[in-house]
Backbone:
């Protein structure tokens, strides 16, 4: 089983060059130094490689369990969590007034790539905490911020997100959990399921963010409020005191991410769990979506991270495994010499390069949406919202293919658990499901993001892509740029078709949603691959082998992966009618 290596050079190139990280410099006190960024990420690499990654396999084998009403996490996880906290990694992008370091969140994204690739199950704990911090920072009262944020940023307390109930999955309007006013607090009563890291022993307190319904709340999502419900109620010194009326019923037995306890949580089996309102009554969805959008980009990052981990293992195995003869029949060949294995490896690498560029471009836009001012701020907000479902949906779909190919490269031994590569496929399978299934991401893209402004934000993105590509096409025979140019034209046609369908019948029009999301992911990936190729050719810091690697990645992507955009565009342009006619009878046997 090969070890994980943090891909520092690729991350720095994607973040600094392809994503134009220096756009953030004017908004950061003291500016942003490339050497400092490199030093931070180099240290993150040491943490992920030497401390976190070694417990990935053992954590998967052991999992978590419930003992005496408490979840016991896998051995060693508390130690690596302590190392994570002591390094200040969870506070990188936190507000300085609450103990954070005030750095752009895109730096935290680059750190989190390594944490997630090293140990996906472990990484979910700090990921959910960061989302909870974001929601509290954006919507809670100053008193709640001062009470909870410093300890959450330090890692002394962790956070969770409690949405799903037995009868309320993606349809949050069906939430039945109750919040009964009791003086200055609320009594929370109900059950939540699928709560990631809902309990553990790694931190002194767990701050649950819980969606619940007030007694006089209107029906549907407009009647849902958000509450902080701590595992331990704070005493007069704001330290964890009495246990709140919150219980772990069980942990789920899952296909993957075994070391991440996915809990069934019971609130208020006795007098009712003490909760504190976040934001305004009946506006919990607005506050929760702050956390969910943070988590959705985080899940896209998980797709990239687990794909990178699987690719590294497949590449190492392909170099070591000898099978078959060399082309000149002079002896046994390492399987990396076989064209079909090269095809699989470059299918993985070229997509990972495109996925990483998209992740960091979206991360920089997200930072600008908070740091910039005026029109630039609004444009970044709109661009971030547009990219989020593509980041979550397209990238996690590619992770399924890439982790599967990693098994295929290993051949029969890839199907054996002891090899370790099967774990990556099992872990990755949750990614298209949680934080909103990819079908929901696709509907969000064409509904909230495309239909609401009649395609204005998408037109702006496509125009920017087209203008950049055209500068490469004019007066040259740049094959990759020409292919991307054609793909952008197809994307424009598909966008117009999608809008026509949605304006005609928004419900039936969603039949185009998945194809549209996948098409846009492929086209944006091609655009960014060409950008990366051009920047690598001009680079004075990349070695010649690194430049060649970026060029071959872009060539392969534009020859093999970009063609998928055409297929998906056709499903949007011509395939809607075949979906509109489907009903239950279509599946009669």
Residues:
């Amino acid at each position: 089983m090969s070890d994980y290596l943090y891909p520092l050079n690729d991350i720095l190139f994607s973040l600094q060059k392809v994503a134009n990280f220096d756009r953030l410099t004017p908004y950061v006190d003291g500016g942003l130094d490339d050497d400092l960024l490199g030093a931070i990420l180099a240290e993150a690499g040491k943490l992920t490689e030497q401390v976190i990654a070694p417990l990935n396999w053992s954590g998967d084998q052991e999992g978590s369990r419930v003992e005496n009403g408490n979840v016991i996490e896998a051995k060693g996880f508390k130690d690596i969590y302590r190392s994570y906290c002591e390094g200040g990694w969870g506070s990188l992008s936190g507000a300085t007034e609450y103990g954070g370091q005030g750095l752009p969140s895109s730096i935290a994204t680059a750190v989190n790539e390594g944490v997630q690739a090293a140990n996906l199950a472990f990484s979910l704990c700090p990921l959910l905490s960061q989302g909870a911090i974001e929601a509290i920072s954006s919507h809670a009262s100053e008193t709640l911020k001062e009470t909870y944020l410093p300890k959450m940023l330090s890692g002394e307390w962790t956070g969770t997100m409690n949405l799903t109930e037995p009868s309320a999955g993606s349809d949050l309007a069906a939430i039945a959990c109750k919040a009964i006013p009791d003086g200055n607090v609320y009594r929370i009563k109900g059950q939540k399921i699928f709560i990631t890291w809902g309990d553990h022993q790694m931190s002194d307190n767990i701050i649950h963010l819980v969606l619940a319904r007030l007694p006089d709340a209107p029906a549907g999502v407009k009647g849902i409020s958000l509450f902080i419900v701590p595992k331990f109620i704070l005493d007069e010194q704001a330290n964890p005191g009495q246990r709140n009326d919150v219980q772990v019923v069980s942990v789920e037995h899952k296909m993957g991410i075994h070391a991440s306890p996915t809990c069934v949580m019971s609130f208020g089996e006795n007098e009712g769990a003490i909760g504190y309102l976040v934001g305004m009554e009946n506006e919990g969805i607005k506050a929760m979506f702050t956390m969910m959008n943070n988590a959705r980009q985080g899940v896209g990052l998980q797709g990239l991270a687990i794909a990178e981990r699987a690719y590294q293992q497949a590449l190492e195995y392909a170099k070591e495994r000898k099978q078959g003869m060399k082309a000149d029949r002079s002896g046994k060949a390492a399987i990396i010499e076989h064209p079909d294995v090269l095809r699989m490896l470059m299918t993985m690498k070229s997509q990972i390069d495109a996925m990483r560029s998209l992740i960091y471009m979206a991360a920089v836009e997200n930072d600008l949406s908070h740091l910039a001012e005026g029109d630039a701020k609004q444009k970044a907000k709109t661009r971030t919202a547009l990219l989020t479902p593509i980041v979550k949906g397209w990238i996690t779909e590619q992770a399924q293919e890439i982790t599967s190919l990693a098994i295929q490269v290993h051949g029969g031994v890839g199907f054996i658990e002891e090899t370790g590569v099967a774990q990556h496929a099992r872990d990755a399978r949750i990614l298209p499901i949680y934080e909103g299934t990819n079908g929901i991401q696709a509907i969000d893209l064409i509904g909230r993001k495309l239909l609401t402004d009649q395609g204005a934000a998408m037109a702006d993105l496509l125009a920017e892509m087209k203008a950049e590509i055209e500068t490469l096409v004019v007066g040259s025979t740049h094959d990759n740029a020409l292919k991307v140019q054609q793909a952008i034209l197809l994307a424009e046609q598909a966008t117009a078709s999608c809008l026509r369908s949605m304006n005609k019948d928004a419900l039936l029009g969603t039949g185009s949603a998945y194809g549209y999301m996948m098409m846009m992911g492929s086209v944006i990936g091609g655009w960014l691959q060409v950008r990366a190729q051009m920047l690598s050719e001009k680079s004075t810091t990349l070695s010649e082998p690194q430049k060649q690697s970026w060029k071959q990645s872009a060539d392969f992507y534009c020859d093999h992966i970009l063609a998928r955009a055409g297929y998906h565009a056709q499903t949007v342009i011509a395939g809607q009618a075949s979906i509109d006619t489907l009903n239950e009878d279509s599946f009669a046997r």
About this structure: The CA atoms of residues 369 and 377 lie 5 Å apart. The mean pLDDT is 94. The first strand starts at residue 65 and ends at 67. The chain has 19 helices and 14 strands.
